[in-house]
Write a structure and sequence with these properties.
- It is built from 9 helices and 15 strands.
- By secondary structure, it is an alpha/beta fold.
- The protein has a domain of about 140 residues: Rossmann fold.
- The strands form 2 sheets. Strands 1, 4, 6, 7, 8, 9, 10, 11, 12, 13, 14 and 15 form a 12-stranded mixed beta sheet that branches. A 3-stranded mixed beta sheet has the order 3-2-5.
- Strand 14 and strand 15 form a beta hairpin.
């Protein structure tokens, strides 16, 4: 990864770099994770371990991480265990060693700097500190909040321990940072139901805020809240710098961030998306929706470097937006797949 920007590689450059790194990771995980090796053998992986393109690499469905313990490190090297927060069924479990956790944290930092700059901004969190309980085994929601906290300072939670609006704390935060940029972070549904509602009711001025939000669109779509309506409502509070991002527990550290000018989510240099036709699993062309596959160089302690998600998406363009590479949108969930919005479930007690 570059030590500066992580949005630098054209799609051709990205394909070459990722093929080499992901092929190497496939070999590493084959040696260190016997269940993964058996899966590749059953899928007909090439015996010489060579692939002609990133699209040829064998993907794992993310659901496998709900059903199996897939890790490429011995138990004594497990540093942190992450669990997803799907609303039904078993959660996914991801095992990190110290090296992988550090690499993913560093990648997240450099990705966010493209939006936030290098300074740590005062941070308003549209959640409760209760999501940080049991740090050794965090939910996806708690892990996201904890990960984002390292990019801010003067952390202030919108909700108290009883999930009630902590108006004295929020108003004090806004007074302290009046006239200065500050970061707002939260899951999309929490931003809508908590932050937007409270800010409008209390006539808060959020015009200096930069909002990062993720997940939770399912509940908003159920309420007929479109992205355009979401942004128009936030603009009534003065909040206009709004960036959605896409990520998942199984590929922690690799996030795909919304740009400022040309619509869509963008891929950092160390990751990419492939949209696949759900009938024959061939790559879908630009403009044709399909199932999203996520590839990333970051998962080294578990075989999560090539994953087929349960999300539907579409690629809008390639090398034609704010940053080089693919520009895409997430359209929703596969029919009958688990509703797994990170913001829709609190951590297990």
């Amino acid at each position: 990864m570059s030590r500066t920007s992580v949005f630098t590689l054209s799609q051709q450059e990205r394909d070459i770099a990722l093929l080499a790194s992901l092929t190497g990771l496939t070999s590493v995980h084959q040696r260190r994770c016997p269940p993964y090796a058996r899966l590749l053998s059953a899928l007909g992986a090439p015996p010489d371990g060579k692939y002609g393109s990133v699209e040829e690499l064998h993907w794992l469905p993310v659901r496998l991480f709900k059903q199996h313990n897939l890790k490429s490190i011995p138990d004594h090297e497990v540093f942190r265990v992450l669990t997803s927060s799907g609303t039904t069924g078993e959660p996914s479990t991801v095992y990190l060693d110290r090296q992988t956790a550090a690499a993913q944290a560093e990648a997240l930092t450099r990705t966010l700097q493209a939006v936030l700059g290098r300074l740590r901004l005062p941070m308003l969190i549209a959640d409760s500190s209760a999501v940080l309980a049991r740090r050794a085994s965090l939910s996806a929601r708690g892990a996201a909040v904890l990960g984002m906290m390292s990019h801010g300072r003067d952390h202030t939670f919108l909700l108290d321990a009883d999930d009630k609006a902590d108006l004295p704390a929020v108003n004090a935060f806004l007074r302290r940072h009046s006239g200065d940029p500050f970061l707002i972070f939260g899951f999309t549904y929490m931003i809508w139901t908590e932050l937007a509602a409270i800010a409008l009711q209390e006539k808060m001025d959020l015009s200096n805020g930069i909002l990062l939000h993720t997940g939770g669109w399912k509940k908003l779509s159920d309420q007929a809240v479109s992205e355009a309506h979401f942004k128009r409502t936030l603009a009534e509070t003065g909040l206009r710098q709004v960036h959605n991002y896409y990520g998942m527990t199984e590929a922690i550290g690799a996030i795909f961030v919304e740009g400022s000018k040309t619509p869509g989510l963008y891929c950092p240099d160390f990751a990419d998306v492939i949209v696949r036709n759900p009938v024959d699993w061939s790559p879908s062309p630009v403009g044709v929706p399909g199932v999203i596959e996520v590839v990333s160089e970051l998962p080294r302690s578990y075989p999560g470097h090539v994953l087929l998600t349960e999300d539907i998406g579409v690629i809008h363009g390639i090398d034609d937006g704010d940053w080089p590479g693919k520009r895409f949108s997430v359209l929703g969930r596969l029919p009958r797949s688990e509703a797994r919005g990170c913001s829709d479930a609190m951590p297990a007690p």
